Amino acid sequence: MTRAIDSIHRRHGDPRFHVDWILVVVAVAITVFGILNIYAARYQWTVDNGLDPYIYVRKQLIAIGLGVVAAVVVAIVDYRRWREFALVFFAATTGALALVAVAGKQINGARAWFEYGGFQLQPAEFAKVTLVLAVAAYASVGRGMLHARELGLALGIAAVPGGLIMLQPDLGTAMVFGAVVMAVLLIAGAQMRHVVVVCILGVVMVVAMLGTNQLKDYQINRLTAFVTPSGPRPGTQATRAERNLEAVRANLRESQTAIGSGGLHGKGYLNGTQTNGKFVPEQHTDFIFSAVGEQFGFVGSTALLGCFALLATRLWRTAKLSRDLFGSLLCVGVLAWLVFQVFENVGMAMGIMPVTGIPLPLMSYGGSSTIAFLIGLGLVCNVHMRQYT
Amino acid sequence: MQQLNGLRLRVLAVVVGALFAVLLGRLWYLQVLSTQDFTRVAQSNQRRSVQLTPTRGRILDRTGLPLATNLASTVITVDRKLITGKRRASDRALLFERVAQVIESDAAAVTTRAATFEARYNDQQYQELDALPLAEGITDTQAIYLRERPEVFPGLDVREAQIRAYPYGSLAAHVVGYVGRITAESKNRYVAKNYQLSDLVGVTGIEQIYEDDLRGVPGKVVFEVDSSNRVISKLSEVAAIPGSDVVLTIDATVQQLAEQALDAELRIRRTEHPRLSAAEQAKGLSVDATFSAPGGSVVVQEPADGSILAMASNPAFDLRELAGGITTERAAKLYCPDEAQTAGLCTEEDKLRAPFLNRAIQGLYPPGSTFKLVTATASLSTRLVSSGHEIDDTGTFVLKDCKSGERCRWQNAGATANGPINIIDALTRSSDVYFYQLGADFWTAKDRFGLAIQDTAERMGFGDLSGVQLPGEQEGYVPTPDRKRARHDANAAAFPEGAYPIGDNINVAVGQGDLLATPLQLANAYSIFANGGHVLSPNVVRAVTAPAVSDDQLGATVRSVGVRELREKLAMPAAVRDPILRGLRGVTASPSGTAYQSFIGFPLDQFRIAGKTGTAQTGSRNFSVDDISLFVGFAPVDIPRYTIAVVMEKSGFGAQAAAPVARLLFEALSGSGTCLPAAVVAIPELVAGSPAESSGALPESCQLYQPGDGYVE
């Protein structure tokens, strides 16, 4: 009896016995659902082009496999050990971002990818993990109080990869960076007046960028298409920019049509006419939510959002349970990452957020983002596992 | 140790919850509240319909011979997917080049052909969803070559399609009409009737007037398509209902002979010199001048029911040329609009030819002496004169109480004096003096008789549309004081004279002055007289029939066109009819008749003809070289079966030009001579640059009789 209790006490602190299985199950559920939808979104396209319909699923499964291995490795080693390497990882991804800005492959107007032998790597996705790690590491030093100098330094650190990403240019990812950094710093104890100042500075920067034509027309279009009235000015020939704007609007319209026509119960798996008709561009990546909405309806979409909400809850809970501030901040970082991407991506597909190339975590087709987010979840698991040690 | 700010963490939770709530709200709006709207949009997104063009009805002559029909043609089309888009522009150019090389032989033609492909590719009228038709009328050899090499001609399809065919070239071209593309001006009208811009529609003639019958009802296929319009599946198909056939009253053999005779006579006229008067020579007209005889018209009608057996207009045009898509240069030459003339693409001569003008219903001519039928009918009906009433024709009519400044003297043609004659002889000899007197008398007695000549003319169909089933018919003009005044008031520049002196009425009495009539109106007026006063609308259409099962037989009648009373019957008592008939018979039968010379040798005792010549003066210079030659008549006199009107522009005396044409046709119709209407023969495929502009030469057995020089007018 005593031995048994002893054993329980001993085991009590053993990380192996504190895996957050709910988080794992929810993550697996979302991932599996994601694969189903990637298949559906690309099915007709692959058939039309005489390709194997599983080609995307297969590539995605490879990425998931790699991601799971990475997440397990990340979870096994105590996150406080990882903290020591935070700066190294951060420097590595920042270097990769600098390199990609010079030698990267340009896709959809952004120079954000390394390409080697048919495989593409998007360093910005991995930079999200290292950013969370680095900012959490730095901000937790303040022990719950961040002074202006520390806050400024933290922002300065984050600004380096953020700036490099803006160079690509990839506004969406830069926005994720902003959200993650702000969330972590807020929880780490940044003072409200500082935060207000930072927010004002951010707004000024964005306005300045828009005002000084730093962005290309199509980028502005993607950001503003969901609020601006449609069509070229009456009696004028549509300019190139206006045609592009119309294309973005059409994209949004088709996406909303797909989701809206799904109705309460959806049209059924592989029965989405908008999906099969390829009316929504980028449907297996950024607009995957439209495939979900059309095929699975309100019920299915709500279930998916519920899974994301549950996942968020687990991250939040882990942040609360963490033994130390660093662990909490790691979880908050991943939480902000998850929530911002879900809100932006799903909001975009439903026409209430600007069009940015942000993936839906665990759902969208794409190796880098999937692996990076799984690593992020690995970190959270790590924190959860070591809440007693 | 815990420095975690619990409050901030809770605030974070609230923010996250709020964001999820926003997403859920939007999802509710899209998928629950507005789902019906989006469902509708999604359905229209995925459905595309393609119209199935029905087989167009044929146009048949009265014996069932197809004057307009459809032929299977081998058409090559190309899948638009493979040639659309910026990146495929070079593929397209290459494909077009290769296909052009198969169809054309020499280098220049290849370039032109490839350019037409590109033009079609850019042409909005071809349905975006359909494969793009590149060329029609591909030979079997070419088709096989193209079919066997899909790797060289990707996306190319060789298929059978129906094209409109006019097997007899220019035969009855003006009546049949042709089909063409919908123009920008007519676009709205057709689109409202559910036409596609790529559809062919009737542009003139029966093709135009009977468009609704000929067209049929288009079918429709609804496809499920994807975002790039690629067909995923066929959702529904409604077959097209073929159009009805239109059976004409035209007899192709009579039509052909009429066209040939008219054309032959016009050619003869162009080599003849007019007899120049001293006055003309004084005005400097060369003795070498020949008639220009630029055109004319023949109408053959059945007076009993108003059916048109033949309606010829010369010059004509080749329907095959128009159906096959005419080149810009050729169209400029044929239509010769002012811009084309300015640009030097056509000459004044081309403009005057006006081959598209259907002179039978659109040519307005002074009827000259052929109008004396009307004046005579008016005079006898009102009893202004009796059949025995004689007037001394001295060759010159001098107006009594002539007002100064007005015309006081009128002469017979050639100032021939006929002596004291009655109305019968006046018709036979075409005494102008006699009819001048009637015109003057009617004017003097207008309080008693009203404008009797004009009234009679209008009751016999002049000055109004005949109602024939053809587009663009002209009304003509019957001058009255009111009309002349109104015309002057409306446009003083074009009509400087508003007064109507007695001289105008004198001119009307002999079919001159401002009086204008179409050849069809003339034929119809004589038919009215011939049938005992029944005023009928001429018919070119006999029936509309359901699509035929085979080419040899007609389908069931959908609608038949019967006798159409245009106005109330004209009283034609013996006291009116007999003297006129005797006068008209004399024209051909009596040695003093104006057309006696033209009918020598014709078996008039077996096939009696009542007719009238006319030589109408036109133009201000009044040269005989400009005279319009007319002959209108009907036969056989006892039970009239045929009315023939022949009008020939600038061809001389009626007896000289028009009468021989009428004679030949009467001969053929009566079967009394060697000439018989020959069967029409479909002419082989149109060779570029050699369109048929007439129905060819007269058969050997048919010779136009050349009257001697002894005719009078």
Walk me through the structure.
The complex is a heterodimer of chains A (389) and B (713). Chain A is mainly alpha-helical. Helix content of chain A is 70%, strand content 3%. In chain A, strands 1-2-3 form a 3-stranded antiparallel beta sheet, with helices on one face. The mean pLDDT of chain A is 87. With 713 residues, chain B is α+β, with helices and mostly antiparallel strands. Helix content of chain B is 36%, strand content 16%. Chain B has 26 helices and 21 strands. In chain B, the strands form 6 sheets. In chain B, strands 2, 3, 4, 5, 10, 17 and 18 form a 7-stranded mixed beta sheet that branches. A 5-stranded antiparallel beta sheet of chain B has the order 12-11-21-20-19, with helices on both faces. The termini of chain B are far apart.
The secondary-structure class of chain B comes to alpha+beta
* Residue runs with pLDDT of under 50 for 5 or more positions of chain B: none
Strand-residue proportion of chain A: under 5%
The helix content of chain A is over 70%
How many β-strand stretches of chain A? 3
Q: Can you tell me the overall shape of chain A? A: globular
Strand order of the largest sheet of chain A: 1-2-3
Radius of gyration of chain B: 34 Å
Helix/strand-derived class of chain A? Answer: mainly alpha
How would you describe the shape of chain B? Answer: elongated
Total DSSP E strands of chain B? 21
Fraction of residues of chain B in helices? 25-40%
Alpha-carbon distance between the termini of chain B?
Answer: 135 Å
